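I'd like us to work through together how a protein chain folds, taking it slowly. To get us started, please write out a protein record for me. Go ahead whenever you are ready, and we will take it from there:
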Amino acid sequence: MEKYQLAASSTMGATGFVAGLPADVRDRLLGAGRRRSFAKGEIIQQRGDPGREFWHIESGSVQIGRYSVDGRLTLFALLGPGESFGEQAFLGEFPRMVDAMAGSEAVLIRIGEAELQALIESDPRAARILLKTMARMVQQAFDLVEASRNLSAIDRTRQALFRLCGGQDKDIAVPVTQQELADLVGVSRVSLGKALGELESQGAIRRKYGKIIVSGRSELLSPGP
C-alpha cells in the first residue's frame, strides 16, 4: 500500500498558468499541444528532470508532491481537469522541483517550447499576458501564506482541504491521515479532531480510514447551519 505524508506547508492550489490566460489565447495554446494518456499511478515527471514542457490536465487527476528515499510521498496537491503544472521549471529553465503522478487514468496536454514560441510569434499580446499570469500566481502564493497566519483551526483546516482538492469539485477522496493533516494545519491532533467533527456535522466532509471525503469545494467554504 502506498504511504502518504503531507507537507508542513505548501503554496500549491492556484488553478494554474493556463487557466489564467484569456480564452482565445488559451484555446490556441492548448490546440497546439500534444495529448498523452497516463494510467493510474504512472509517473509523469520526477524531481530533477529537465523542465522541457508543462502540462494541462484535460481529464483525470494528478498528484503533486515529493517522494522520499523510502518511497513515502509528501503530498502537496491533488489537481484535476482545467489545471496545469510544471510551468515554473519550464519557464525558468531549471530542473523539476516536485514529482507528479497520475492519481487516476488521465489525459494531459503537453506544451513545449515550440508551441509556446509559436503562440508568442503569432500574437503580440502573448508574452505580456504570460508574464502577468505568472506574476498573479506568485501573488496568490503570498496571499495564501499571509491569510493563513491568523485563521482559526477550523478555517485553516478548510483551507488545507480546499487546497488539496485541486480542481476537483465533488466527492473528492483526499488520501491523508488525521495526524498528517494536523501536521499540515499546525494544530494538535485533538484540535484537528474537533475541527473535522464540526465540518462533518455541516456535511462538508466524511472521515474514512486513511482519507477524508470532501463533499465539495463549495461546501468547504460555506459556513455551517
